[in-house]
Amino acid sequence: MKKAVKIIFITGLVFGIIITAAIATVPLWFPLEKVKEIVVEKAQEMTGRRVVVGDLKFNIFRGIELHNVAIGENPAYKTDRAFIKDELIVLRYNLFALFAKKLVIHDFSLVKPRIIIMKEKDRRFNFSDIVENLQKPEKQKNLPAKKAPKQNDNDKEAAFDIIITSISVKGGELRYVDRSKEKIQDILIENFNFSMEDVILSAVKPIGISA
């Protein structure tokens, strides 16, 4: 049980870092639709999966909100099911740190995330391909069939360093299916709440993650 929660939490955290890292490549003064397009493109590039962002809202004082965010399942499963689906992601940041090209997130919240973790008989997870894709050199990354418009060189210069100091999950649904055992283990945790403060997680592009 503890292992399942740990795996699901780490996966959700990676999801958050991917979305935050994608946002950090975008000048926040761009039109919101343009920001959303670039965020989707960068997230797809990092995951090798189809990524959807329903709506993106930005307020210079209140922060960034992403509504109805989803990362598609591993293509090997041949399903339209989402690997991770989040009703709302809220990022509240330090305004003054932006002037030093640092995106310091002091409140990173996943609201009603739905996460499905699958472990197969070969002991690979349904997110193993994402980890492998993140570790590839930029030119070798797998890209989904559909991509948002590419950034130009001026856009790429706007990348920020990322620091996350507080993380929370509210009303989450976490499912862990382990098929590597003789008896399949299927764990469902509903209305999961989690918070961690006074932590410092940092990522500077390119991001490296090990499984």
Structural topology:
Elements: H1 2-24, H2 32-47, E1 51-59, E2 63-72, E3 82-93, E4 102-119, H3 128-135, H4 153-156, E5 161-164, E6 167-178, E7 185-196, E8 201-203
Parallel strand pairs: 4-5, 4-6
Antiparallel strand pairs: 1-2, 2-3, 3-4, 5-8, 6-7
Helix pairs in contact: 1-2
Largest sheet: 8 strands, mixed
Tally the helices.
Answer: 4
Low-pLDDT stretches: 153-158, 203-211
As a percent range, the share of helical residues equals: 10-25%
State which percent range the strand residues make up: 35-45%
Report, as a whole number of angstroms, the end-to-end distance.
19 Å
Count the beta strands. Answer: 8
Quaternary organisation? single chain
Nearest-integer average pLDDT? 77
Indicate the overall shape: globular
Tell me the count of domains: 2
Rg over alpha carbons = 17 Å
> Would you tell me the structural class of the helices and strands?
alpha+beta
Encode the helix/strand succession as letters: HHEEEEHHEEEE
Would you write up a description of this structure?
The chain has 211 residues and is an alpha+beta fold. It folds into two domains: 1-26; 31-136 and 159-203, no CATH class. It is built from four helices and eight strands; from the N terminus they run H-H-E-E-E-E-H-H-E-E-E-E. Strands 1, 2, 3, 4, 5, 6, 7 and 8 form an eight-stranded mixed beta sheet that branches. The longest helix is centred in the first third of the chain and has 23 residues, at 2-24.
